[in-house]
Amino acid sequence: MIKLYQFPISHYCEKARWALDFKGIPYEAVNLIPGLHVPIMKRLTGRTSVPVVVDGESVIAGSDRIFDHLDETRPEPSLMPESAAQQKAVREWENFADKEVGPHVRRYCYHTLLNYPEIVKPFFTTGGPWYGGVYLRAAFPVLRIGMRKAMNINEAGASRSLEQIISAVDRFHEAATDTGYLVGDSFTRADMTAAALLAPLCRPEGYGLKWPETLPEPLASTAEQLAPKLEWVLRVYEKHRQPFN
Ligand SMILES: N[C@@H](CCC(=O)N[C@@H](CS)C(=O)NCC(=O)O)C(=O)O
Fold this sequence. Notes:
The chain contains ten helices and four strands; from the N terminus they run βαβαββαααααααα. With about 240 residues, the chain is α+β, with helices and mostly antiparallel strands. The protein folds into two domains: about 1-75, Glutaredoxin (3-Layer(aba) Sandwich); about 85-240, Glutathione S-transferase Yfyf (Class Pi), Chain A, domain 2, CATH 1.20.1050. Strands 2-1-3-4 form a four-stranded mixed β-sheet, with helices on both faces. β1, α1 (about 10-20) and β2 (about 25-30) form a beta-alpha-beta unit. α4 (about 85-115) runs parallel beside α8 and α5 crosses α6. The model has no long low-confidence stretch (mean pLDDT about 95). Bound molecules: glutathione. Glutathione (GSH) binds near residues 62 and 106.
């Protein structure tokens, strides 16, 4: 059976989970604890980042390469339109979401959430090994410093990320206004990618995480301000995010 090495909180891992679920592929999720994931992932790929899929002899790292692998090995149902022009457009949206949106959503959200260990620690331990809570009780302060440094999470970074998010949300909303989808009139991996990477801002059901009832400020106000333009994300989740596993 396919194994997915992941963090349940990670929106890039949600892309991979969604692709597997959408195609009805059974898989075993190996839920890792941030920090403790490093030696496990280094042994597997030589790098530290997740998601990683192990499918028989193949080890595939990165959500975009995982999509490619699944599309090649299990083409149906397809996440790609048929026309070459639309395929190009799908790739462009996906690339934009991966490079210009995902890292900013993560940085902006963590800038607030890392100040609230009671919210973040359950995100990090969900579905993971029994010792996750014990480890985080001791290691969280150091892990948080490492995360802030690695992702440049600070006031200036967060405000740059917010600008980027607002402009990206406008672009997606405008593109999805006519049909509800980014390319043509059907669901593609562009919608799956953008919706998964924006999900932490609108907390759709189906993401597989127990979201907090209320968000701390300024995240709550930002989410409220963006909500009308993120409705298409919730609609895409409602229509296309059936959890099979
Ligand atoms: N471009 C990669 C991004 C993956 C990524 O940024 N993963 C983060 C979690 S959201 C991660 O593994 N961080 C921990 C690390 O790199 O050690 C993808 O699409 O999979």
